[in-house]
């Protein structure tokens, strides 16, 4: 008994049914059918994995002793509520995974006490309204994941409290409208994923608030026509543009006005395009995908440094004057 007691004094703290790897500073209770968030993890834990349990909510100060956790996993825990100060005390938390839960709102005070939070995963929850007031207490938020919710519109000043946001993922929502100032205040936004929504036009006015946008994805929206200067607000910064799978029928002759040498990749596959506007200004283009369009045009790109060109399943001719291209066409 004495030896067992002495040995137990040197064992790390670890809740029952959990596994704590002190050498890795990882603790996990994944898939243990727990109904309450356990206590008693090693204080030096940096990764805490509690996914696939049945917590239903996160109570106040649930992690108050977990000061060194950098990454917290709470996916698939049927969580529908975060109480105020739910994560209070997690001063080093950078990654918070709340994917595949039942959240429809977030009380702003729920994120109190985690000032270093940088990556927030809220994908596959129950949001029908953008949680625009939730980010006041996380000023360093860099990447926000809200894919596959039911958000229908983005109101003005949606990102007013997320001024340092660089990446916004809204894939697979029900977005049909973006207010003109919906992206205002987030001047550093670089990546915007709007694919597989219900937008019927390029939200040009809203995009005017994103002067350094690098990547824009509009794939899978029911946009049939792209008008003049649709991408002009981010003409100096845009490098990657996705317009595939939209049923797109026509591009204005000035649809890409302002875009030029900065564009590196352009995706237009799986549309209904019969003609293309001039792309001669796209002198930095490396990848273009035009596959599965009823194109009948003769197309010349003399000055591009293309690495890949996909033009299969159409009836277009391509006049190429540069050598060393890795092209795939028919």
What does this structure look like?
It is found in: Secreted, Extracellular space, Extracellular matrix. This is Chondroadherin like. Keywords: Disulfide bond, Extracellular matrix, Glycoprotein, Leucine-rich repeat, Repeat, Secreted, Signal. Pfam families: LRR_8. It is a single chain. The protein is mainly β. It has 2 helices and 23 strands. The chain has a 15-stranded mixed sheet with strand order 1-2-3-5-7-8-9-11-13-14-16-18-19-21-23, with no helix packed on it. A hairpin with a 4-residue loop joins strand 1 and strand 2. The N terminus and C terminus are likely disordered.
Structure summary:
With 330 residues, this protein is mainly β. The chain has helices at residues 2-9, 204-207; strands at residues 19-21, 26-28, 47-49, 57-58, 71-73, 81-82, 95-97, 119-121, 143-145, 153-154, 167-169, 177-178, 191-193, 215-217, 225-226, 240-242, 250-251, 265-267, 287-289, 298-300, 308-310, 317-319, 326-328.
């Amino acid at each position: 008994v004495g030896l067992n007691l002495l040995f137990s004094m040197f064992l790390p703290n670890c809740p029952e049914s959990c596994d704590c790897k002190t050498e890795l500073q990882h603790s996990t209770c994944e898939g243990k059918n727990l109904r309450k968030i356990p206590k008693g993890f090693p204080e030096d834990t940096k990764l805490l994995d509690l996914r696939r349990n049945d917590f239903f909510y996160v109570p106040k100060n649930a992690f108050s002793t977990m000061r060194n956790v950098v990454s917290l996993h709470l996916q698939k825990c049927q969580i529908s509520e975060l109480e105020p100060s739910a994560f209070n005390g997690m001063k080093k938390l950078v990654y918070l995974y709340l994917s595949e839960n039942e959240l429809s709102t977030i009380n702003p005070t729920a994120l109190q006490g985690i000032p270093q939070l940088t990556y927030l995963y809220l994908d596959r929850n129950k949001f029908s309204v953008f949680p625009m007031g939730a980010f006041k207490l996380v000023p360093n938020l860099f990447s926000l994941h809200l894919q596959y919710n039911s958000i229908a519109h983005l109101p003005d000043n949606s990102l007013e409290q997320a001024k340092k946001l660089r990446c916004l993922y809204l894939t697979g929502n029900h977005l049909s409208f973006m207010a003109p100032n919906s992206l205002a205040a987030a001047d550093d936004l670089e990546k915007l994923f709007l694919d597989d929504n219900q937008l019927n036009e390029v939200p040009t006015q809203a995009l005017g608030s994103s002067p350094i946008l690098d990547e824009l994805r509009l794939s899978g929206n029911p946009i049939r026509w792209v008008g003049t200067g649709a991408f002009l607000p981010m003409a100096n910064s845009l490098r990657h543009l996705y317009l595939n799978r939209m049923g797109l029928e026509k591009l204005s002759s000035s649809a890409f006005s302002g875009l030029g040498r900065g564009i590196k990749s352009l995706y237009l596959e799986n549309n209904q395009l019969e003609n293309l506007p001039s792309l001669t200004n796209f002198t930095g283009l490396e990848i273009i995908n035009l596959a599965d369009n009823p194109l009948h045009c003769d197309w010349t790109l003399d000055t591009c440094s293309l690495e890949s060109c996909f033009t299969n399943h159409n009836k277009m001719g391509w006049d190429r004057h540069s050598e060393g291209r890795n092209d795939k066409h028919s």
